[in-house]
Specification:
The protein is α/β, with parallel strands linked by helices. 30% of the residues lie in helices and 19% in strands. It binds flavin mononucleotide (FMN).
């Protein structure tokens, strides 16, 4: 029998399939399809210190092999999450990851401090947000600012800290090393790739925000490449995501270096995707006599 459970920072996941932030809400809608204990964990919709109404529509555009989104972090705020969503989530018998976002380092620290006194399992730092004190440059785009925000949040965070990398950078391995050096316990990657579509009749960008984040199967090879590069650069576990839509992708991402996986955009086509991917992965492992997920992690044999 193959064992699909994984342990990361002492936290046990029933299986390596985790719902990706922003594609699963706070889980309630999906619990109508299957018991949430069927998935390894849930990374909740990104929360901010105060509630946010998000961007004006259109916020999502379909693209070939993916979607472009600029939702703008619509969410009810951290206090509402703790009071209203978390008690329900904790009854679901799955790992709970609180994904946090902000526009100042102080916002992130305040949320990490509040969440440290709750029953969540991990804090996931979404650093693909503009830092208003640095002229709107995203936190995730330089080693210095990634190191700084990681070190500051770490001072307030009593939960394992997962830093979610942006792919919109020149050297992802250097960014990952900076997160690790400054206290990240886990790396999750990748967030969306910045993209744009234009309506040729109106000449207007399709997304009201002009640009948006690209996700879905089209980004998968980029995500695999980046996970592999980071696996070769750091010693902390990686949770891999970006375009995973079938069990073969899951195997590939694990081979590139991931210890667990997040599943996002495919959920919009098929809410059962994580359950199906898990079943396919289990069969692959049994057929190939692989007894644990860790045997797959980083097992790619690169050409010389
Ligand atoms: C509609 C939508 C909303 C998202 N919201 C968030 C968010 O709030 N926080 C975050 O860290 N990532 C967010 N993401 C990024 C995903 O968690 C994930 O990193 C990305 O979509 C790549 O994985 P995928 O191709 O499997 O979707 C969002 C993605 C989509 C499509």
């Amino acid at each position: 029998m193959s064992d699909l459970s994984v342990k990361i920072c002492g936290v046990n996941f029933n299986n390596p399939l985790i719902a990706a932030s922003g594609t699963f809400g706070f889980g309630r809608e999906f619990s109508e399809f299957y018991p949430l204990e069927k998935i390894g964990g849930i990374s909740c919709k990104g929360i901010t210190l105060k509630e946010r109404f998000g961007n004006l529509p259109p916020r999502i555009a379909e693209t070939e092999g993916g979607i472009l989104n600029a939702v703008g972090l619509q969410n009810p705020g951290v206090d509402h999450f703790i009071e209203y969503d978390l008690p329900w989530l904790k009854e679901q018998n799955t790992v709970i990851i609180a994904n946090i976002a902000g526009n100042t380092v102080e916002d992130y620290c305040a949320m990490a401090e509040k969440l440290s006194d709750t029953d969540i399992d991990f804090v996931e730092l979404n650093i693909s947000c503009p830092n208003v004190k640095s002229g709107g440059v995203q936190f995730g785009t330089s080693c210095e600012s990634v190191g700084n925000i990681t070190a500051e949040v770490k001072k307030y965070c009593k939960k394992p800290l997962m830093v979610k990398l942006s792919p919109n950078v020149t050297d992802i391995a250097e960014i990952a090393k900076s997160a690790e050096f400054n206290g990240a316990d886990v790396i999750s990657m990748i967030n969306t790739l910045t993209g744009m579509r234009i309506d040729i009749n109106s000449k207007r960008p399709i997304i009201r925000n002009n640009t948006g984040g690209m996700s879905g199967p089209a980004v998968f090879p980029v995500a695999v490449r980046m996970v592999w590069q980071v696996y070769n650069a750091v010693n902390i576990p990686i949770i891999g995501m970006g375009g995973i839509s079938k069990w073969q992708d899951a195997v590939e991402m694990l081979m590139a270096g991931a210890s667990a996986l997040q599943i996002g955009t495919v959920l919009f086509n098929d809410p059962y995707a994580p359950v199906k991917i898990n079943d396919g992965l289990e069969k692959f492992m049994e057929d190939n006599k692989i007894s644990s997920i860790s045997q797959l992690t980083g097992s790619v044999i690169p050409w010389e």
